[in-house]
Design a protein that fits this description.
The structure is a homodimer of 311-residue chains.
Chain A (H helix, E strand, L loop, with lengths): L2 H13 L6 E3 L6 E3 L7 E9 L11 H18 L2 E13 L3 H18 L3 E10 L4 E10 L15 E5 L9 H4 L4 H10 L4 E4 L4 H12 L2 E5 L7 H4 L7 H7 L6 E5 L4 H7 L6 E8 L4 E4 L5 E3 L15
Parallel strand pairs in A: 4-5, 9-12
Antiparallel strand pairs in A: 1-2, 3-6, 4-6, 7-10, 7-11, 8-10, 9-11, 12-13
Helix pairs in contact in A: 2-3, 2-5
Chain lengths: 311, 311
């Protein structure tokens, strides 16, 4: 470890406030976490690579650092949990020098501060390859247990937060992880199942349904389509963007029928919460279109051959 | 996520036995760990990059996967802990195909199985860059608390496991993390402080001393020098290899004077356990050479100008 690297890590350590459940942070062979949460801890990890998950300099160092934490915060939200501690491993391109590294950490630390996350450990490297960052994030369930993908039951109503499609226009970098929404949700009810949408609305719906061993009927007309999907100007129907695009980082939530009124009456956040269908015992995943026709909804998110307008 | 990637992850998931403290493993937005360990949990992470931490194909895919877990196991040993759950993020070079990816996991899983570690989560990617792997490893202290770097006190005797220097001849890849040694140590005594040697014996000794706010006097003649250091045939004195090389993955242990007899009498493992010096209140780090002279031992591990024999 060179002197510059040591100073850089010493600075991160100085800025990282150690608070429960973290009792030992950066500076030892490992961190020590002493959680008093009876529901256990949730742990998620995501690796982002330049050229795949973001382009530089189109995406700034600050934004890349922020996104690396944000995608993990979205996973913690989907477990019905609050984040506590982050572990950050990086391979910085040597050629970009220390300013790049500092900007990455500044973006990450700003978001960590916003959500009260302690940066408790990590591994800082440099090399002649592209920028790579891995964040492992720990959290604690807000309720008596984590909300899994596998708990959905026939009859459950499927809700989604926010709107879908066209995230490539900027939301794939600048999204707000749905931690506040998960917290309000857990105050009102205990959902049967939850997942965040990273692969795409249809794809992640499939993941939830597969883990639960159930199917669903989705009402095409009720899917909230983001204005970014309308603005794509690529002649692809906005609904297809909404179902297939991915990186929306919204939540899909399976709610017991008897909890629906309490949830919708109590929901007081500005983020939309929209019912889009319901769980079935039959394992088919069906999209009911505006004409009443039901077609299979595959994971990639569209249901029939589509051709661009030919005028 | 493509079909091949999905199948690949499904296979890893099938092979990963879920057992306490892991209650939810691969297949959700996060894993769930419910530890009953009163001492809390220790968490460490390391990122290894091809070209920096290993060369391919000189180091095989299997060996790279094994090393990625092994370096983290070494950190867990240095906390006086046993490992429980691993989270594995990878960026595989697309050009090497699935066989490479399977070999990496086979190497990692073999070591995980040996030490009863559950692969509880991860993130699998491919790209056109070099191979990158990050492992985050969770563990539980074997005693009533984790053993930190910061607990060394004046008068403590410094012990080391094994022997040092010349790890580049193969031990930097094939080393055995000192988990068994840490377990036996904790059965016999409670050390004041511990660290594993990755940067080098002198460098990691400095880390331990800095965190503890103390100094040390090291007896140069007592440092166990590995036969690999003797075999380097580069005209560098073996002692300098032992002090400076790094990647030995041995333990440095600070032991209360009143515990020394119990430790040395009770030590029944084949791994050598050698006293190399003692802790001082003065913060200097001194190497006492065979002629009785004391010189400052800097983190890079040698004490005076050295010139190759000129015969």
């Amino acid at each position: 470890m060179g002197r510059a690297e040591f100073d850089f890590i010493a600075d991160i350590r100085r800025r990282a406030a150690i608070k429960p459940p973290v009792i030992v942070g950066i500076g030892d062979d490992a961190a020590v976490i002493q959680s008093t949460c009876a529901a256990g801890e949730v742990i998620t990890t995501d690796m982002l690579m330049e050229g795949t998950d973001f382009l530089y300099p189109q995406t700034s160092a600050w934004e890349m650092g922020r996104k690396a934490l944000a995608v993990n915060l979205s996973d913690i939200a989907a477990m019905g949990a609050k984040p506590t501690a982050a572990f950050v491993s990086v391979a910085f391109p040597q050629s970009r020098g220390e300013a790049f590294a500092r900007d990455v950490y500044a973006g990450l630390e700003a978001l960590a501060h916003e959500y009260d996350v302690t940066i408790a450990g990590g591994d800082t490297n440099s090399w002649d390859g592209p920028f790579v960052i891995n964040v492992t994030l720990i959290g604690e369930p807000l309720g008596s247990a984590a909300i899994l993908r596998s708990g959905a039951k026939p009859g459950d109503v499927l809700f989604v937060t926010g709107a879908f499609g066209g995230s490539i226009r900027g939301r794939h970098i600048h999204f707000t992880p749905r931690l506040q929404e998960a917290r309000r949700l857990l105050e009102l009810i205990t959902p049967h199942a939850m997942i965040d949408v990273s692969d795409g609305l249809a794809a992640d719906l499939h993941h939830l349904l597969e883990e639960s061993g159930v199917g669903a009927i989705i009402d095409a007309t009720s899917i909230p389509i983001h204005s970014d999907a309308e603005a794509m100007a690529d002649n692809v129907p906005p609904l297809r963007h909404a179902l297939g695009d991915g990186e929306d980082f919204e939540l899909i939530i399976a709610v017991r029928p008897e909890d629906v009124a309490r949830l919708t009456n109590g929901w007081d956040l500005s983020t939309a919460l929209t019912p889009i269908g319901y769980i079935t015992a039959e394992r088919d995943v069906l999209l009911q279109e505006s004409d009443g026709r039901q077609t299979n909804l595959p994971p990639w998110g569209w249901t029939h051959e589509w051709a661009p307008p030919t005028e």
